[in-house]
């Protein structure tokens, strides 16, 4: 019977230092080649890093192309001039899978010298670049920290449908689906379902899942499919409690991601912000600040992209990190379930969080009274019977509740200083892109 005992055990590049003066086998992609005739230096990259392999004699004459998958066996030794201070003196090399040449672009430089569209057209290749690779390690750490923080505070992770009968906000930005001959849509948000789970007695819930927006935008800040980090909790006193939670949670997420991805943040040259005492500015006051400080006129009851950038600049000038909560949005521009502000029913107990010039969060307290919610739906020109399964929840006792949602790609791109949110999506979906 054949066994695997004769096969060499693979060692990750990052663990070579533990195997000095021993024979090791590394497997990965050819990151760089420097050929000096009967001597060649081949850098092999795996998920953990890069190691230099020294090939001599016949081994050096082997034809290799960049990004080919190889297996190299040899003696691990210290080498002061090699990357990381060590190298493998190869005794054997195998090309497992040869890469086509030339590549669409080089990925062994500090940055990829290609347009973003070219990088996205060849996404699997661009994802191999160490800096791009680092982006998604960091993003995974952020999502994991989000889950850990909430789980530790007695929140339950939920999984809600992504094929729904109607939109959560009564809008038209929906992708239609033929559901066995009946009309259905891709979910814009898990909003209704996370409220249902609060009302079902779970009280505190969260979800990490894709959402879909059929918006015609084609900008650096919009995706038509993105990952939403959703939170909903019952028995809140006001939306202030939600902002307290998010501020503390973001601090935890950034600290944990920073510890887990120290090398990745260093590679990208990113200094982590520390969100604390995030200012909470009513939108009307924010508009007044923008007009007074920058001569900026804003749309009614809201901030446009330039306004978001400027209000973060203002916050930074006040010796605060580039986080700003904008509060008290008018009811007319908020969803039907937004709770009216206690001091003025024309405003809502809602907020956005702006981070480094871009809105990454929308949240607030929700209406929990059946009659008030029904009236709000009618006030939007919508029919309550179209939301019957949602409204039924409120017939049977619903606590005061609220929540928020963070766009994971926006959070990642703002944290890493990326100019286009597509850079923070492994396989972005926008108005023009459906592949790869």
Task: Provide tags for this entry.
alpha+beta, OB fold (Dihydrolipoamide Acetyltransferase, E2P), 28% strand, 2 domains, BirA Bifunctional Protein, domain 2
Task: Describe the 3D structure.
Keywords: Aminoacyl-tRNA synthetase, ATP-binding, Cytoplasm, Ligase, Nucleotide-binding, Protein biosynthesis. It holds the Pfam family tRNA_anti-codon. It is found in: Cytoplasm. Residues 136-436 form the Aminoacyl-transfer RNA synthetases class-II family profile domain. With 436 residues, the protein is an alpha+beta fold. The protein has two domains: 13-97, Nucleic acid-binding proteins (OB fold (Dihydrolipoamide Acetyltransferase, E2P)), CATH 2.40.50.140; 124-424, 2-Layer Sandwich (BirA Bifunctional Protein, domain 2), CATH 3.30.930.10. Helix content is 29%, strand content 28%. The strands form four sheets. The protein has an eight-stranded mixed sheet. Strands 1-2-3-5-4 form a five-stranded mixed beta barrel. It has a three-stranded antiparallel sheet with strand order 7-9-8, with no helix packed on it. α3 (130-152) crosses α5 (239-260). The radius of gyration is 26 Å and the shape is elongated. The model is unreliable at 1-5 (pLDDT under 50).
